[in-house]
Amino acid sequence: MVKEGKLKAVYIKGGIFMVIRRPKRFFLIMVLIILLFSQFGIFATNIIHAAQNYEERQNKKFLSQYEWVEWEITRGDTYWNIQKLLAPNSNICKLKNFVEKKNERQVGMIYPGETILLLKEKK
Prior knowledge:
The protein is of the alpha+beta class.
């Protein structure tokens, strides 16, 4: 039995009564927990943002070694052959990601008469 003076607050959660004897302490702890989780969220967001900025800087640095050129596809051309001709010392797979993003399409299927942008090594 709880004395009338000791009972501070009664809350209903899922049909179960919870008796909180020290509501000030309870609410203080709840506020601290909420602040802790919100700070963790802000911290995680900052880490993600910093990682994205780092990746963008790395991509700009990588692309500074190349220049964009227009190439008209002729019969028998494949992306791999053309790109190897334009950038013989480069990783064609890595270049493919940048080329597809720039052209807003996949470059695996190209047809004669099309013009696409490709990366060429700077001299």
